[in-house]
Amino acid sequence: MADSDDDIATSSDNVTFEEMLADTENEDMASGERSADDLEAVFDVPVRLSVVLGRTKMPVSNLLKMDVGSVVELDRQVGEAVDIYVNDRIVARGEIVLVDGRLGVTMTEIIKAG
């Protein structure tokens, strides 16, 4: 995971899923060489997907005082977008949702690689 805010893409890097798709389609047409079949070799490669709800810093002494029921205050507000990482690289932002009693995440922004 990213250790600092410097690792997180700025808002100028944010694009919608539709914009990303359009860019990909335009590149495919221009090169004439890419297709979905080209990616088939990596379809079964496992990746680690992480959703970061928030972060905080605290001294070890406070950490050692924690017990069952302790609350850790994070740097995010309720309803604020969460960061979605694939293999420690931010790829999207989204919102937490509840699906059949389980937590999930809906992607609301795709972060353009850069």
UniProtKB/TrEMBL annotation:
A Pfam entry, by short name: FliMN_C
GO BP term (any one): bacterial-type flagellum-dependent cell motility
Residue span, Flagellar motor switch protein FliN-like C-terminal domain: 41-111
This protein's record includes keyword tRNA-binding: no
Annotated compartments: Cell membrane; Bacterial flagellum basal body
A molecular function (GO) term: cytoskeletal motor activity
InterPro entries, A to Z: FliN, FliN-like_C, FliN/MopA/SpaO, FliN_T3SS_HrcQb, SpoA-like_sf
GO cellular component annotations of the record: bacterial-type flagellum basal body; plasma membrane
Keyword flag Cell membrane: yes
Membrane-topology annotation of the record: Peripheral membrane protein
The entry's keywords: Bacterial flagellum, Cell membrane, Cell projection, Chemotaxis, Cilium, Flagellar rotation, Flagellum, Membrane
Domain of life: Bacteria
Record-linked SUPFAM superfamilies: Surface presentation of antigens (SPOA)
Function summary: FliN is one of three proteins (FliG, FliN, FliM) that form the rotor-mounted switch complex (C ring), located at the base of the basal body. This complex interacts with the CheY and CheZ chemotaxis proteins, in addition to contacting components of the motor that determine the direction of flagellar rotation.
Family according to the record: Belongs to the FliN/MopA/SpaO family.
PANTHER family xref list: FLAGELLAR MOTOR SWITCH PROTEIN FLIN (PTHR43484:SF1), PTHR43484
Name of protein: Flagellar motor switch protein FliN
